[in-house]
Design a protein that fits this description.
Blueprint (H helix, E strand, L loop, with lengths): L2 E2 L15 H7 L12 E5 L5 H16 L3 E3 L13 H13 L2 E6 L1 H5 L1 H14 L4 E7 L11 H4 L4 E5 L15 E5 L10 E3 H6 L1
Parallel strand pairs: 1-5, 2-3, 2-4, 4-5
Antiparallel strand pairs: 6-7, 7-8
Helix pairs in contact: 3-5
């Protein structure tokens, strides 16, 4: 399943309110509260309001699973202008964070910076600690999603509605978010609950 834009739109966050997680991001360092929780670098396109709203909803969902989320747009250690210092800081934080998730909207897929961040994530987090969160435009079919090739390379986040079954034992897959690994040589796909994946 490829999520449709708006799926993660926040139900709690207001545009005028920055959550505790975002406030903590402003003082992100290896010496603060991030040390006690799993940390996630969320790569996303943040110049478009709709993308920001989607990111806020993803942050909310991840926080509910007990992790702390870093987004570079809220980091007060970032220079005002994009420079080599910006890239160095992003590399440092990606390396430090436990997990890397790309919020792969159409605009993020086209973004030089998001692709560069994915490359850094690939180096430091592939394959057990990186995942793609695919989001297509409203009304698009899954096959029209611009990032389908990403889903052939990286683990990705999916949602199961409680009506599908495990192939090996026929048991019902509980409703919820899962990380889907690439098919093995036998064509078997492995899934891990997102909560479990975030805790490893």
């Amino acid at each position: 399943m490829i999520f449709e834009k708006g799926h993660f739109r926040s139900s709690r966050l207001q545009k005028s309110i920055i959550t505790d997680s975002l406030n903590e991001t402003k003082t992100f360092s290896a010496k603060n509260a991030y040390d006690t929780k799993i940390t996630v670098f969320l790569s996303h396109k943040h110049k478009d309001l709709e993308e920001v709203e989607e990111a806020k909803g993803v942050i909310e969902m991840l926080e509910d699973l007990g992790v702390k989320v870093y987004i570079d747009s809220m980091d007060n250690k970032m220079p005002n202008q994009t420079t080599g210092e910006t890239a160095a800081r992003i590399k440092e934080v990606i390396k430090y964070c436990d997990k890397f998730i790309l919020l792969a909207t159409a605009k993020a897929i086209e973004s030089y910076w998001c692709n560069w961040e994915l490359g850094i994530g690939d180096v430091h987090k592939f394959q057990r600690h990186i995942a793609i969160l695919p989001v297509k435009e409203k009304g698009e079919y899954d096959y029209q999603y611009k990032g389908n090739e990403y889903l052939q390379i990286y683990p990705y986040i999916d949602y199961r509605d409680g009506t599908t079954y495990y192939r090996n034992n026929g048991g019902l897959i509980p409703k919820g978010y899962y990380v889907v690994d690439q098919k093995d040589k036998e064509g078997v796909t492995y899934i891990t609950s997102l909560k479990t994946w975030l805790s490893k």
